[in-house]
Design goal:
Keywords: Transferase. The chain is of the alpha/beta class and about 325 residues long. The protein contains 15 helices and ten strands. The protein has a six-stranded parallel beta sheet with strand order 7-6-5-8-9-10, sandwiched between helices. A four-stranded parallel beta sheet has the order 1-2-3-4, with helices on both faces. It is elongated and about 65 Å long.
């Protein structure tokens, strides 16, 4: 029998409630394995402390898509600038560390090996790339026909430093000048001079679309663009791929792992050129989109990722 503990927004009171319930569960109904999904709040080390205090000797498996030990994960350095070594402690206290990509496993290996070789000797053998499941049933429930008008180019990243939204907006002005494309911005974007220069009749602002409306918007779109410098996997991009949207991605992070080489670009000049070409040529656009869609749905289905996680849980439970 499995139990799920968690939820909420990460506030201190919520963390305390999670740890209290976790401690009660260990005593009342000890599990075979503890799986902590994206264990940054509460810290995995706190889960291990509760386990030790309760006398629970079973394994702890943590599952994360971000770490201070990925140098490009700017969010963690901006929000928690002094927690890099605490973050390493989170990784070290787990029996297995599930990560979302082979690239992330390699990044952790490189960074921890350089800073703390003895820690890396323990950590690296525990790393297990398993991917991350997409909610394909919910994505498919929102399916609708692709918009028949001029191609829609979607930007569905959060407006944070590591995603470089300003790069997209600066490029978008030239794209609209040279093509009939329209833009869809799915997230709430703070006012900025780049956005103000774009033709409002050709820019759709989603303003943080509700999930089902967001998936429907991806089905209607034609091209998705990423300008990120940090991507341990690329969930927003994979969601777009799963809807048959043609995605163009920088050659960074895990992106080469999730798509074919002809979807990758090296600089914004190349990105603009590719966008202009794909807006005007539907057949190459549809071909790339079909390949990405098939690949994504096979690799990141809930069934495939769950099977990979289950294999690791069986490994430590033996």
């Amino acid at each position: 029998m499995s139990s799920v503990v968690g939820g909420g927004d990460g506030r201190t009171a919520w963390v305390g409630a999670v740890l209290t319930e976790f401690e009660r569960m260990l005593v009342m109904r000890p599990p075979d394995v503890v799986l902590a999904f994206h264990a940054f709040w509460p810290f995995t080390v706190e889960l291990r402390r509760v386990m030790d205090d309760a006398g629970y000797g079973g394994p702890l498996v943590t599952y994360t898509h971000g770490s201070h030990w990925d140098r490009t994960d700017l969010f963690r350095f901006e929000r928690y600038p002094r927690l890099a070594w605490a973050d390493l402690g989170n990784l070290m206290c787990a029996d297995r560390v599930l990560v979302v990509s082979r690239w992330m496993a390699a990044a952790l290996t490189t960074e921890v090996s350089a800073a703390a070789p003895s820690a890396a000797a323990e950590l690296v053998p525990r790393l297990r790339p398993v991917g991350l499941p997409l909610d394909l049933p919910r994505i498919d429930a929102a399916r609708c026909p692709q918009d028949p008008g001029p191609p829609i180019v979607v930007f569905n990243h959060a407006p944070v430093t590591a995603k470089r939204p300003e790069v997209f907006f600066e490029l978008a002005e030239e794209l609209l000048r040279r093509t009939p494309a329209r833009l869809l911005i799915t997230r709430r974007i703070p006012p900025n001079p780049f956005l103000g220069r774009l033709d409002p009749d050709r820019v759709l602002l989603g303003d943080d679309l509700p999930v089902d409306e967001y998936y429907a918007a991806l089905w209607k779109a034609h091209i998705q663009v990423s300008t990120a410098i940090h991507e341990s996997l690329g969930v927003a991009t994979l969601e777009a791929m799963a809807t048959g949207t043609c995605c163009l991605l920088p050659r960074v992070g895990a992106y080469p792992e999730i798509t074919d080489p002809d979807a990758l670009y090296d600089d914004t000049g190349e990105l603009l050129s590719r966008l202009v070409d794909l807006v005007g040529r539907p057949e190459p656009r549809r071909d790339l989109a079909a390949r990405q869609m098939a690949r994504t749905r096979a690799a990141y289905s809930p069934e495939r990722v769950a099977a990979a996680v289950h294999e690791v849980l069986l490994e430590v439970a033996r």
